[in-house]
Amino acid sequence: MTSDHTMRPFATLSVARPALAAFLTMGVLWGTFAAILPDLKTMLGVDEAQLGLLVFATPVAAMAAMLAAPMIGASLGRAALPVAVAMMAAAFALPGQAAVWLFPVAMAACGAATGLTDVLMNARVSAMENARGAPLMNLAHAAYSFGYAGAAFTVGGLRAAGWGPEAVMALMAGVGLLGALAAIERDGRIDGLARPKDRAAARLGLVPVIGGGIVLIAFMTENAAEYWSALHIEQTLGGSPAEGSGGPAVLALTMGLARLAGQGIASRINPFHLLKGGALIAAVGAFIASQAMSPAMAYAGFIVMGIGASVIAPTAFSLVGQYAPDAARARAVARATLLGYFGYFVGPPLLGLIAGSFGLRMAFVFAACLLALIFVLAPLLARQRT
Q1: CA angle (368, 371, 377) in 5-degree steps
Q2: pLDDT confidence band for 255 (50 / 70 / 90)
């Protein structure tokens, strides 16, 4: 009995390895981008508001890719996830090479590949969860957070050593290609992506809409903080480049550790209590970061924010997978991902516009206020159980 219990985590890691590799790779690539963002801003010669507009092509491309993801995933079969991860890795080599007029195109490529990968990897984890009867979503999202934190810390060291955006992003894109190899599996087909001919079976209802709304809020605040924390520390608080890169790294590392803890408690705590508690804690952390007077105080805010935000999106994704009918699960998760990652991509440009007009402090205050909407959406989702 003890031996089986000891081996269970290793068996879980083995089964979930392809999806974990996809989440880890995405974390590495976006962690690289967030940590190198101050240097990209300098390279492009733009301010926060202009930079927000330059990355606005990202959500447009991501939304298009997410809409097409079920069809693409169904046609590629078991190769869908590793192919999407490889495309994402290749795309992230581009922004460091681009002049101002080509930068939106490079970011559009990153957005499209990320959108495709995101739908497929979340649908794969949801299928694994329901097949095994065990929570895996927190573990998968923890892999993203650890990849993000590790990349941010690494990029901070590379920046301190004098590496420019071109070399940094090319190196980390190579790391991403290794993640694509790790995402290959013998039986990786994601069932339920194709739309059924039966109209009744094709209906998804409100579950992915409400669940996706919760993910939208979580990712809008989480990713906006990841994008703008380095600039907040360096420009608002006068921190060094290494301290600035530490902002997104601290946030992501905290979220990774909290998600590992969430993996253990997800089956013991009411998921709706988990959603509300996470939103409250994350809002407090965002407000602390907005009022920070030093990099250390900002780090404290990001740690609190990371603890709260860590459980929101994985819990919402799991609930969508649980509440959707079996035949519609993959498409329901894909729909929730589409809605949720609208926040993931729109959040940074939106907060960039707020920062350009009112300052980075006010951008984090806005993020804190946004989290309060989860207290409205969580009860609505609870009523959808059939």
Answers
A1: 165
A2: confident
Q: Are 382 and 208 in contact (CB under 8 A)?
A: no
CB 227 within 8 Å of CB 351: yes
Please report, for residues 14, 43, 80, 191, 311, the alpha-carbon distance to residue 340 in angstroms, rounded to integers and kept in the order given: 28, 31, 21, 21, 14
Distance, first Cα to last Cα, the chain: 36
Q: What is the pLDDT of residues 169-196, one digit of tens each?
A: 999 999 999 999 999 887 767 766 766 6
Contacts of 303 (CB under 8 A, 6+ apart): 250, 251, 254, 285
Would you state the pLDDT for residue 113?
A: 95
Helix spans in the chain (H): 2-44, 48-54, 57-76, 80-91, 103-132, 137-160, 165-182, 199-202, 207-231, 241-265, 271-290, 295-309, 312-323, 329-358, 360-370, 374-382
Nearest to 37 by CA among 282, 277, 228: 228
Question: Helix, strand, or coil here: 163?
Answer: coil
**Residues whose CB falls within 8 Å of the CB of residue 103, separated by 6 or more in sequence, listed in order:** 44, 54, 95
* pLDDT at position 200 over 70: no
Q: Tell me how far apart the alpha carbons of residues 17 and 218 are, in angstroms, rounded to a whole number.
A: 25
Q: How far is CA 44 from CA 9, 98, 318, in A?
A: 46, 9, 40
User: Using 50, 70 and 90 to split pLDDT, how confident is the model at 6?
Assistant: very low
| CA triple 120-126-127, angle to 5 deg | 90
How large is the C-alpha radius of gyration of the chain? Answer: 19
Please identify which residue in the block is written with the tokens 């939304």.
Answer: 63
